[in-house]
Amino acid sequence: MADEPPIGLRSAAGLRNMSPPANGYGEGGGEEEQRMLLIDGNAVLYRSYFKIMARVGYGGLKDMGSEGDWVLTVFTSLLTILRLLEARPTHIAVVFDYRGLTFRHQIFRGYKSGRAPTPDTILQALDCIKPAILSMGITALEVPGVEADDVIGALALRAVAAAGTKVRIASPDKDFFQILSAQLRILRFAPKGSGIVSFGLEEFAQKFGSIQPAQYLDVLALMGDKVDSIPGVPGIGEKTALKLVHEFGSVENLLERRSEVVLKRARESLMLDEGAILLSKRLLTLRFDLPAHLLPHNLDDFVCQSPKDQGENFMKLLQAMSPYIDPSVPQDLEKRVRKIWKTWQVPQQALETYF
Fold first, then answer.
1. pTM for the whole thing?
2. Structural domain tally of the chain?
C-alpha cells in the first residue's frame, strides 16, 4: 500500500467542534439568508444517460442521429439542474469527478478496479456540459486528484461552519449521510420519475434508528461497496451492519470485541478480518479539509447571478447542439434558463420543500 499524499484526514465524527478553516468562507455577504446548493455533476449526467438509453431501448426515441444520444444527455442534465434551481439557492456549484487517479488509488490499488469503462456518450457529454454550465453563470468544479464527493463535502462544511449557511447536496450517494446536520440536508432523486426527496436528520433517524449520521460511515465500512471495489466484510449487509454499529458504536470498538458478536456468520467473518474493515473506512471517509491550493474559493465565488455576456455563449452552445435533436427541447431549455436568470436579479425566498 502506497503512502497517502499530504492532505489532512478528518472523519465526520469531529465535525461538531470544527472551527472555520483559514481558507474558509468568513462571514459571507449581506443580510439575506445564505442557501447553498451543491450538485453532484457526474450523478446527474449518468442519471440522464440511463434515462435516455432506457427510452431508446423501449423505442421512445426512434429518429435519433449518431450524435443525438450525448446531446440529449447534456440537455436532460441541464434540465435536471434547472429543476434543482427551483429550490431558489443563493449560491450554487456543480462538481465533477477528476478523470484520473485520486488519492484513494494510492491508498488502495484495487479502488474502482471493477468498474466498466466510461461510455463514450458520457465522455462526449462531459466535454460539453461543463462549458454549458459555466455559460449559464454557474460554477463548475473539477479538482485534480480529488473526487467530487470530497470537494462537495469540503465546500458544504466550510459554508456551514464559517457562514452559517443552509446547505443542500443533490446526490444519490449515501456517503453524504456521514455529514448530515441541522443545516445540511441531501436532495435525493426518486428511483423512478423526476421526483426529488429532501433527506435530513429527521429522515435519517426514522430510517436508521438511534445511530448518529457520523456512525453511518462505520455501517458503510462493514458493508463495503462492490461498485467501487471496497471490500467491507463478506456476508454483512446494511441490516446486520446497523445492528453491529448500534451495539458496538464503531468498527474500531467492534474489532476489539469481535469475539462477543452473537451472530455466528458475522462473528466468523469479523474474526478473519486482517485490515479490510479499517481500509474500507479510510476509503469511505469524506476528506473535507482540502488545502487552499486545491480549493481556493470563497462563498462569493458561488453566488447565483446571470452571466456577464447576457447568455450569448450559452445560446451559441444551444445552437451548435440543436440540429441533432427535436427543436422543442433547446427551445424549452432556453425559456427555462432565461426565467432563472430573471429570478437571480432580485432576492428570492427559499422553496421550503428543499430549504
1. 0.89
2. 2
